[in-house]
Amino acid sequence: MKYSIPRGTYDILPAESYKWQAVISSFRKIAGSFGYEEITTPIFEVAELFERSSGESSDVVQKEMYRFTDRKGREFALRPEGTAPVVRSYVENHLDVLSNRTKLYYIGPMFRYDRPQAGRFRQFYQYGIEFIGSDNPYYDAEVIAIEMLWLKDLGLKNLRLEINSVGCSSCSADYDTALREFFRPLLPQLCADCNNRFDKKPRRLLDCKVPSCKALRGSAPSQLDYLDEACKAHFAIVCEHLESMNIPYTINPGIVRGLDYYTNTAFEVIYEGLGAQNSLAGGGRYNGLIEQVGGKSIPAIGFAGGFERLLLALEHEKINFAEHKTPDAYLICLGDKARSGVMAYLNALRQNGLYVEYDPDKSSLKAQFKAADATNARFAIIIGDSEIEAGTVNLKNLKTGEQQSLPLDGGEVLLHIVQGQV
Ligand code: HAM
User: Fold this and answer.
1) I need a surface site. Which of 197, 216, 317, 400 has the fewest CB within 10 A?
2) Are both 47 and 193 inside the same structural domain?
3) Which of 374, 368, 362 is nearest to 394 (CA)?
4) Are 151 and 197 in the same domain?
5) Which residue, by CA, sits nearest to atom 20 of ligand 1?
6) Shortest-distance Cα residue to atom 15 of ligand 1
7) Residue range of the domain that includes 103
8) What span, in angstroms and rounded, lies between the C-alpha atoms of 234 and 164?
9) CB under 6 Å to ligand 1: residues?
């Protein structure tokens, strides 16, 4: 019986793993330099956490959530996103007591039952940032800066930052009324989802992916015209801060975001060249979410990006930042005594951090040198039965051909390899 991988998932094979490790460690580095610390939450949570936070009318809850009932009849979901779990953990672990400014980042798999295509998977990996504890627009700009500076550092050029303000709960009520007035006469031409969402969440209609619905909403009212004074001022300061950091942006009133928890700033980072799935990352403020999941009223802002799309973008710009590792040395062994005597030695070199290749199935000198060349190792460590008896090894620089005899015990071989010389 042969098995295939589930649709919408993929294996990260060794040749790809190097790239993943490189981007992950580079993300950890930038997050760390802004003072963010890693948080890891389970990949499943009670389903209600997502229903309440993402919103009953969101695509994520209505169509994409992997829901399951456990053996005791409890309803869980594989996490479709990372913000609600982080907030759940923040509230449950009273992280607000430790500090009134909490800076968290996370990396991990998320799950959405989406239609798979380039850049869209059913299991995908997100990196995310959540800042909890202040409504100061400084933090909106800081969070956006983390993403933009990082992507620029990685070498990406065709980036576009699009921002919007979706207002607070009080100014969004007037906007919802205006949207209903706009969409009401169009209802017969809109899809079934849009019709279902019209009463409860009219702004979801701005997010519908059906082409005929998209075409009809061109002249829909803009949230920016319905912001109250405080929200308007907040948004203006975010824009000012971005300008003072030389981060270019475009205001796009069409950004509504697919999840319900957003307030005020909402943003997306677009990478042209990715086709339909061109949103590399997205996020925004969620000032009401912590209270909504049982905590105090504490403002917050964050974003998440998809590693798959990021790697596609890097590939698209031919940015090659992770090399396949080549061995420091290849151990060539001749004779039975040498083979059994060399194992502890090999371990000692590896424990000292050297990457040493060895193949016990190759016995001739010729075959072992050929294998050493194929791995592109810098050195060959040659040990035969006579070397074992004499307590020596031959170290050969495979690039220059130089060779010398060194004691088997002691750190000289190690030192020569680390210094790159014979
Ligand atoms: P989101 O816009 O749903 O936001 O997802 C963020 C990013 O995850 C997207 O821009 C995309 O790169 C990636 N992504 C989403 N779905 C898929 C998929 N099916 N396949 C591959 N990549 C995907 C959130 O998840 C929010 N939690 C972001 C946030 C954090 N807001 C505040 N804090």
Assistant:
1) 400
2) no
3) 368
4) no
5) 120
6) 306
7) 14-168+246-316
8) 11
9) 81-83, 112, 114, 119-121, 124, 126, 128, 130, 258-259, 279-284, 286, 302-306, 308-309
